């Protein structure tokens, strides 16, 4: 990964709770976030001290805090003007307007950056990339993947999606992915073939409504686990 290709844009713990319908029990278990980037999910949840284990894995964590902070600075205005241009594609209830969205994202990334060095030292931020994860089988109860799979349908092949889903299911009992829409706000073309493959491999796979909809029509996650 090259730093100039990175567009750092991270969500909060409150958004993760809503996107993945996280229960208290979910938050107390062994949790893995794949592609958490500069989200404040890990920092905020770690501060509450209730999770048995909490790890985020992302190729971004190859870079230092100041390098990531500089990239946030460089890209922030461009992202916000893109959001302003495509205002009607989003539902403005959770965030009142693009400026409120920008302020929330900057706040999340500030919380992440403040925690980053300590989190790296504690093994909460690990360098790694799907479709291969540096963990043993079933090290985690729940694996979350936000705004990576399905969103980047045009960039990431169906084979990459399947290999990534199977790898997350190798290391965790259950996997949840949000959103299921691509960047054009269409249901990802990879979703149906991935559901079929997972079900034929005897996984239990469901599409579940969640209390978070920012992309219009995007209020659903994929939940997959092993059949008992
Ligand atoms: C749009 S950001 C989403 C960040 C965070 N999950 C959130 O929702 O706020 C996508 C993230 O995926 C990471 N990423 C890209 N390729 C990846 C891969 N192969 N495996 C894991 N993460 C990857 C990027 O570095 C980036 O941090």
> What's the count of strands?
7
Radius of gyration: 17 Å
H/E element order: HHEHEHHEEHEHEE
User: What is the CATH third-level topology name?
Assistant: Rossmann fold
CATH superfamily: Vaccinia Virus protein VP39
Flag low-confidence runs: none
Number of domains: 1
* Strand order, sheet with most strands: 3-2-1-4-5-7-6
The largest β sheet comes out as:
7 strands, mixed
What portion of residues is helical? 25-40%
Structural commentary:
The protein has seven helices and seven strands. It has a seven-stranded mixed sheet with strand order 3-2-1-4-5-7-6, with helices on both faces. It has helices spanning 13-19, 24-28, 41-48, 65-85, 98-121, 158-171, 191-200, and strands spanning 30-34, 53-57, 125-126, 140-146, 172-178, 203-209, 220-226. The chain is globular and about 45 Å long. Residues 9-11, 34-37, 39, 58-60, 129-130, 146-148 line the site of S-adenosylmethionine (SAM).
Helices and strands in order, then pairings?
Layout: H1 13-19, H2 24-28, E1 30-34, H3 41-48, E2 53-57, H4 65-85, H5 98-121, E3 125-126, E4 140-146, H6 158-171, E5 172-178, H7 191-200, E6 203-209, E7 220-226
Parallel strand pairs: 1-2, 1-4, 2-3, 4-5
Antiparallel strand pairs: 5-7, 6-7
The structure holds S-adenosylmethionine.
